[in-house]
Amino acid sequence: MDGFVDPKLALRFEELEAQAAADLVALRALDLPGSGAETLRRAGATCAWFAHESVLSHVFGLGLHGPTANSDLEAIEQFYRAKGDGRVKVELSPYARPDALVRLGERGYTLTSFEHLLARPLEPADAQLPADPRVDVRAIDAANPEECAEWVRVAGEGFFAPNGVPLELEGVFELTPRLPGTIVLLARIDGQPAAAGAVAVCDGIAALFAAATLPAFRRTGAHTALLAARLAHGARSGALWATAGALVGSGSQHNMERHGFRVAYTRPVMVRAL
Fold it and tell me: Interhelix angle for 98-106 vs 70-82, to 10°?
């Protein structure tokens, strides 16, 4: 753990991510009442269920708001079991109380992977980051179905071409433009869509996510321009910190580090088969 982020700030980072997951689940439940999308609050943790195998269907913030009892984990496991899931996934903050880790170990949760949370402070100068004249970056109109559909296409193809959006992210991009406090941006080069990204600002934090560049436009400056635009939006909105998640050792991690981000901490991902 680097130490430039203290436990109080780390808690704010975790709560912002948990709230975003809960908001996306609520939007899915509104659009698809029969989907079973639902959120459970237990022991201060947010237990989100968006869909089977979804990247959002896991536990956020366990052990950050008080002790974790076996009865809490039993209730959480029953919540996911009732959804027909074959496992419970917990992304555990390194600032979680030790008893949370002990209880998970006692119940057979095993470490499956790690995820970095990267952060960097925002300064007033970030609001005036120079624009790349080759790249036009603009926020899309979340009320315009055609613009939203174009953003979803670019985000999906940019992340996963040529295979298409995987099961764990199905339905997530479509709801992102409607996420409270969020703007989604599209970068164009010579009028052609090149890259997509999103930024949500809340509680003095600008969370950067969903950034992807179409294969034909990689190494053209589109991704960097999109990052600069999101940092500028965060700074202009009064945010003092910017955050982003990344898999350990991934290209996303290295790209963010080249633009001033540092690893704030690393979350172990704990899973138990039901």
Answer: 60
Whether the model clears a pTM of 0.85, i.e. scores above it, the answer is yes
8 A C-beta contact, residue 206 and residue 244: no
Residues 203, 225, single domain; the answer is yes
Asked whether residue 92 falls in the same domain as residue 75, the answer is yes
Evaluate whether residue 131 is within a structural domain: yes
For residues 141 and 225, membership in a common domain is answered with yes
Q: Give the total number of structural domains in the chain.
A: 2
Tell me the residue range of the domain where 169 lies. 123-239
262 domain residue, yes or no:
no
Do 69 and 148 belong together in one domain? no
Own/partner pairs, 255-260, CB within 8 angstroms, 24+ separation:
255/223, 256/118, 257/118, 259/120, 259/224, 259/227, 259/231, 260/120
Q: Could you read off the pLDDT tens digit of each residue along the chain, which spans 274 residues? A: 456 899 999 999 999 999 999 999 999 999 999 999 999 999 999 999 999 999 999 999 999 999 999 999 999 999 999 999 999 999 999 999 999 999 999 999 999 999 999 999 999 999 987 778 899 999 999 999 999 999 999 999 998 877 777 778 899 999 999 999 999 999 999 999 999 999 999 999 999 999 999 999 999 999 999 999 999 999 999 999 999 999 899 888 998 999 999 999 999 999 999 9
* CA–CA distance, 107 with 148 (Å, rounded to integer): 43
Q: Does residue 131 share a domain with residue 232? A: yes
Q: HSE (CB half, 13 Å, CA atoms) of 37?
A: 20
Q: Closest Cα partner for 40 from 102, 105, 85, 9?
A: 85
- Integer Cα distance of 63 and 67 in angstroms: 6
Indicate if 168 and 197 belong to the same structural domain. Answer: yes
Rounded CA-CA distance 211/185 in Å is 9
Q: What is the DSSP letter of 129?
A: P
